[in-house]
Amino acid sequence: MAKKYGVYICTGCGIGDVLNIDELAGVAEDDGYTVKRHECLCGKAGLEMINADVNDGVNTLSIVGCSRRVNYDIFKWDNCLVDRASVREQVVWTMSREKYPAKGPDDDDYFVDNIQLAANDYLRMSLARLDKVELPEPFKLENQSNKILVIGGGITGMNSAIDAAKTGADVTIVEKEAKLGGWAAKMRKQMPQGEPYTELMPPVVNDTIAKLSSFSNITVKTGTVVARIAGQPGDFTVTLKKPGEKIPFDVPFPLPAEMKVDEAGNELDAEAQAAKYKEYNEGREDILTVDPDGEKFGAVVLAAGWRPAELTAEAYPHLSIDDPDVVTNAQFEEMAAAGKLTRPSDGKEAKNVVFIQSPGAGSDRDFDYAGSVTSLVALKQAKYVREDYEDGKAYIFYQHMRTPGLTEEFYKSMQQDNGVFMTKGDIASVAKEGKGFLVEANGTLLGDNLKVKADLVVLAAGMVPVTVDDAVINLAYRQGPGFRDNDIFDGYADSNFICFPYETQRTGIYAAGAIRRALTMEESIEDASGAALKAIQCLESVNRGVAVHPRSGDMTFPDFFFQRCTQCKRCTEECPFGALDDDERGTPKPNPTRCRRCGTCMGACPERIIGFADYNIDSVGSQVKSVWVPSEDDYYEPPMRILGLICENDALPALDMAAMKKLGVDAQVRFIPVRCLGSVNVVWIKDALSQGMDGVFLLGCKHGDDYQCHFVKGSELADVRMKKIGDALASLALEEERVAQFEIAIDEADKLPEIVNSFVEQVVALGPNPFKGF
Length: 774
Description:
Blueprint: E1 5-10, H1 15-18, H2 21-29, E2 35-38, H3 44-55, E3 60-65, E4 81-86, H4 87-92, E5 99-101, E6 111-113, H5 114-132, E7 148-151, H6 155-166, E8 171-175, H7 205-212, E9 218-222, E10 225-232, E11 235-241, H8 270-280, H9 285-288, E12 295-297, E13 299-302, E14 306-308, E15 326-328, H10 329-338, E16 352-356, H11 372-388, E17 393-398, H12 407-415, E18 420-424, E19 426-433, E20 436-442, E21 450-454, E22 456-459, E23 463-465, E24 509-511, H13 521-544, E25 559-560, H14 570-574, E26 580-582, E27 588-590, H15 600-604, E28 610-611, H16 617-626, E29 642-647, H17 651-660, E30 669-674, H18 682-690, E31 695-700, H19 714-723, H20 726-731, E32 739-743, H21 752-766
Parallel strand pairs: 1-2, 1-3, 3-4, 7-8, 7-13, 8-9, 13-24, 15-22, 16-17, 16-22, 17-18, 29-30, 29-31, 31-32
Antiparallel strand pairs: 5-6, 10-11, 11-12, 14-23, 19-20, 20-21, 25-28, 26-27
């Protein structure tokens, strides 16, 4: 579009008291921009002034005032580009005022105000960005499906389907077993759901199945699994099959280039190419087969559930696991559902039952994948013993007893039962004694070691999400059929435990129930509603051509200048969400509705051919280059210029909160928010240093075991890139210490000034960048 600029400076909130507004306005006016000022741009009169200009054709606005994180709904106009120069939070409220001696008209008494210099730079950066960005246009599918696929017909999947169907959506449930119900259908009873929370209740699964059948817009396919899911949100092509069924494999031509030649580079014939392709994709043939007749869906709810953790005698030799009368909690539940509790070995009454919650043997950890659910199951199953035998005894040995929320009332009621004994204790051994067992526990609450006789021993096996070892979604994605980097999440299907429940690493596929985390049946029913709503939100966002999350409403998507693509595949491999496939040459094949708009592909590309309409290599690079870097020709003691590229999700909010607390940040720093540290391209760092900036730091979310990155891998990928930049710095004869990456959480505003100011001190100690002034 033809841009008509308008610059608007707010003088309120202390801005006009601290800054020389005439000098600030002159930064833009000297370059021919029209500048207007107002004491309250966000007020009625201020907005009327701006609206009048917009109605008169102004469509590119630089708002100089508060952070873009506030009043974002006020400073928003259709079909207008808007940039916010945050001189309130990033200058006036945070920077300490210092004046540097400068070479001026009289040389002796001429000083420059560093706060004013910072504000001037932020206005320059705003105008530089606006010059390099364009108004985004939404990406819309030609033919969008609004059907929802629910994988899993257990209590979670059925409730998710019911909730989605209530909104009018067409839903298909796929269940691999012959009937619906899942683990819920194998239970004797479930935890109480209402006052006084002391009595177990019959499972609701049968009522749920009956309710499901009343919806004409729900299709149920039992004895069916997903063979493959191809495409993207709004346009998924799903192929279904019977468990164990093989689907004919067709080699998709043209093949990737590496499949056409042998090790010596000689071209293979068609048969040899097909054989090589099959070998390369062994185990994925069904997934990669093109299926033109596949059913279309817009979004997927993954509710495939869990399986009991496998406990082995090798792992726990002291627990007599190989004995038939030592069972898991899942096995015990099926026994209880079948009738009165008896010993599996001989069918005799099981009146004395020991429930072991932690393996013990000197360790205070629980069994893998255990948690509050296994604690509640032990209490529930202890109740079964008391129901079946008036003189029955239940013994619960635990290291951690977790009863969240109102389930505490059930726990208290069980404490009052004289037939139930609970204690913290370290299980030393489960030894055979006659037909039963002698269970020994050390370090109990009684202060003594205890020995208890038992007819039956129940081990609290955890709930393992089926995605640990089963690619239940079978994605026809270049990054593989399941969820990548699942080790971060212990196999669970989440993409971000902290910020985005229900969302997986694959856009348009939402997890619910025990596949997301260990949940009770009651919690799973609530979880089902959340996932259904997320799926519907996805469909609505795709229909409008905007991002779903976490940049909800973002209309941009990555654009590629393929003429310069070298097929290095870094963008395809590094995308945290599998948004990119590739063709036979390795050229990226974008799937825009899969994209989360993080920009990781942009940061990965060595050729810098990837960008977004309003966020690209040139726009940020131009901001970097617009910062005025003083040299010895300007100052007797030239101040430093340090660039801070900060994540908009954690670091920018922390910076704003530090500003609200009036915590000081060194005035030699210039901040540029980025979508994610994963989007940072090293060329920005090179540009900053080559023009004379003295240091560059990245500030973003935590990564590693305690990761908090909104885009899962962004901070980690940035860290890898930063470690590789040493060679580039060496080529410029610069110290590696001039570039650093720091981590911060959104609630660590108090730490931010210390992090930034300490880095400034480190750079000052190194001395000025030798490129300064060139």
